[in-house]
Design a protein that fits this description.
The structure holds 2 protein chains of 2 kinds.
Chain A lengths: L1 H19 L1 H34 L6 E6 L5 H12 L4 E7 L1 H12 L5 H4 L8 E6 L5 H9 L4 E5 L2 H43 L1 H10 L3 H37 L4 H8 L4 H26 L4
Antiparallel strand pairs in A: 1-3, 1-4, 2-3
Helix pairs in contact in A: 1-9, 2-7, 2-9, 2-10, 2-11, 7-9, 7-11, 9-11
Chain B lengths: L3 E9 L5 E10 L4 E5 L6 H8 L7 E6 L2 E2 L8 H5 L2 E5 L10 H11 L7 H11 L15 H13 L5 E5 L7 H16 L3 E5 L3 H6 L3 E6 L2 E6 L5
Helix pairs in contact in B: 3-4, 3-5, 4-5, 5-6
The chains are: A alpha+beta, B alpha/beta.
The structure holds adenosine-5'-triphosphate (ATP) and magnesium ion (MG).
């Protein structure tokens, strides 16, 4: 088949070209690896943080709502129903003031003379409200404050916001860094293709004279980019893989270990890295070859 | 209808140089013609027009049935598969053997590599160079290199062969050999145009001579006839 021969021809020519300027090629492969590697680690880190938030950070979606002292148990149950209907509320639980007292007892032991208070429990009834996600907590808080029965809301929304800010920061930094590196990779690949076009000027001239189409002339150049993509992503996978292994042996259990676990280098990630590398290097080479090889 | 037809063709380069000036020319299928004239006469420009490397500023050009003045640039490759070229500067690929240099043309035009073992020896046999198939260009004489270039042009079976001073750098013995090969190719039905400065070569063969000067055809004759 002519197509298979042509593909093999592109591959052979690209391999020869790539080796002709080996040092430049190695720099390009490393940059492609760095770009996709960094992008992947940042994305999986932010994804890992979000997963952790879902596991351990459940409490971050929880609000403790103290009702006013005059609110009777019956009225409190009505409030529960109203709160339940709010769109961003996952679930509501009514906490009787006696249960709250027992919780306090458990928390503070005998430091407070709780027994004496049983007769006239000074605590109000309260609610445990779980929001659908951490992003909704602030909004939920605002709405609950407008309820006349609500006295205070116990929570630290700053913690949630800080956590979300971290995740966002990781995302934005990763995206910005990757973008800069992608541009560097593009420039390097463009430069490599330019070197190749110069080194291949006789080949290109001969091809054009014997009647090669513009795309046949560009074929080896695009294939060179594809090779950069493949080698770059493989390098990235190798580095990420060994980095994970080393880290999981060194890092103590706890948060970091959990994060590491959430960032597993599974086959899906490997495919993504390969796809990204191919896309980045292939597109760069495609653009360079169209710019550098005109129809004549 | 002629294999090559030029009507009122004028080529003006960007700097204003007129390389061809109102040229009318017809070359029939299977003809052999010399293109002669002093340096700067427009011989190479004529050949560039015929492979659509340049488009005339005026006039019409038909080559092997293609209307070159109306052809889209993306069609030029298909024209060039019908119009083989060899030049004075031979342009072989130094890191490849004779065989690989010839096979390169097949690959570039999308021919499957399984065809190589039939097509490459056929082309090399046509230029008497079968025994040098494994040699590298630096192991060949100037004449042999030009024969490899010829084999590379012939391997894709062009209808027309344009040879622009193919013997320009060769001694008289090699020149004669290359000339004999061009005539052999012509006898097999290929239309051949050969630009040359060598009056002795032109005088030795009774073939049509198209003489250019300052972009104009000043003489077009068969020796010994007129
Ligand atoms: N790319 C170009 N731009 C401008 N002028 C050109 C270009 N190529 C050729 N010329 C001019 O066009 C004229 C014809 O050149 P051409 O190369 O066709 O002549 P020629 O007959 O092949 O000469 P020679 O025998 O030296 O090869 C000359 O005056 C040359 O200087
Ligand atoms: Mg010339």
């Amino acid at each position: 088949m002519g197509w298979i021969s042509l593909f093999a021809f592109f591959l052979e020519e690209a391999w020869v070209n790539l080796r002709r300027h080996l040092v430049a090629s190695l720099a390009t492969v490393s940059t492609v690896a760095l770009t996709v590697g960094l992008w992947t680690s940042f994305t999986s880190a932010s994804k890992g943080l979000e997963t952790l938030l879902a596991w351990e950070g459940k409490k971050l979606t929880e609000l403790r709502v103290g009702l006013k002292l005059w609110v009777k148990e019956e009225q409190a149950k009505q409030v529960v129903e109203k709160v339940q209907k709010l769109p961003f509320v996952e679930q509501v639980r009514f906490v009787h003031k006696n249960e709250a007292l027992k919780q306090m007892e458990r928390a503070y032991g005998n430091a407070v003379p709780f027994q004496e208070l049983i007769g006239h429990n000074p605590l109000p009834h309260s609610l445990e409200v779980v929001c659908r996600s951490p992003e909704w907590v602030t909004q939920c808080q605002k709405v609950l404050k407008t309820f006349p029965e609500v006295d205070w809301i116990g929570h630290h929304p700053e913690a949630v916001e800080r956590f979300l800010a971290i995740v966002n920061g990781v995302k934005v930094t990763g995206a910005a860094l990757s973008l800069v590196l992608a541009l560097v990779a593009f420039a390097l690949i463009h430069n490599d293709i330019q070197i190749t076009v110069y080194g291949r000027r006789n080949e290109i001239r001969i091809m054009q004279l014997v009647g090669a189409t513009a795309w046949t002339v560009r074929g080896p150049l695009i294939m060179e980019g594809v090779l950069y993509g493949i080698f770059g992503s493989l390098l990235a996978v190798a580095i990420l893989g060994s980095l994970m292994r080393i880290l999981s042996e060194r890092v103590p259990t706890g948060f970091a270990q959990g994060l590491l676990h959430a960032c597993q280098l599974d086959s899906m990630t490997v495919m993504t890295v390969l796809g990204l590398g191919l896309l980045l290097a292939g597109t760069s080479a495609l653009i360079a070859s169209i710019r550098l090889v005109r129809v004549v | 209808m002629g294999m090559i037809i030029l009507r009122e063709v004028t080529v003006r380069y960007e700097d204003g140089t007129v390389a061809l000036d109102n040229v009318n020319l017809t070359v029939e299928k299977s003809e052999f013609a010399f293109v002669v004239g002093p340096t700067g006469a427009g011989k190479s420009s004529l050949f560039k027009v015929l492979i659509r490397e340049i488009v005339p500023s005026h006039g019409t050009v038909f080559v092997a049935g293609y209307d070159l003045t109306r052809m889209k640039p993306s069609q030029a490759p298909y024209l060039r598969r019908l119009v083989g070229t060899v030049f004075q500067d031979i342009l072989l690929l130094p890191e490849r053997t004779v065989w690989e240099n010839v096979a390169f043309a097949l690959r570039a035009t999308g021919v499957a590599s399984s065809e190589d073992k039939r097509e490459v020896p056929r082309a090399l046999a046509m230029v008497d160079l079968l025994d040098k198939a494994k040699a590298f260009p630096w192991q060949l004489s100037g004449g042999e290199k030009q024969k490899v270039a010829l084999a590379r042009a012939l391997v894709i079976n062009p209808l027309i062969l344009l040879a622009d001073e193919p013997t320009g750098n060769l001694d008289s013995q090699s020149s004669r050999e290359v000339m004999e090969l061009l005539l052999r190719v012509n006898r097999q039905g290929t239309t051949v145009l050969m630009a040359t400065h060598d009056p002795f070569l032109v005088g030795s063969y009774r073939k049509r001579v198209i003489e250019l000067n300052s972009g104009k055809i000043v003489r077009d004759y068969m020796p010994g006839v007129s």
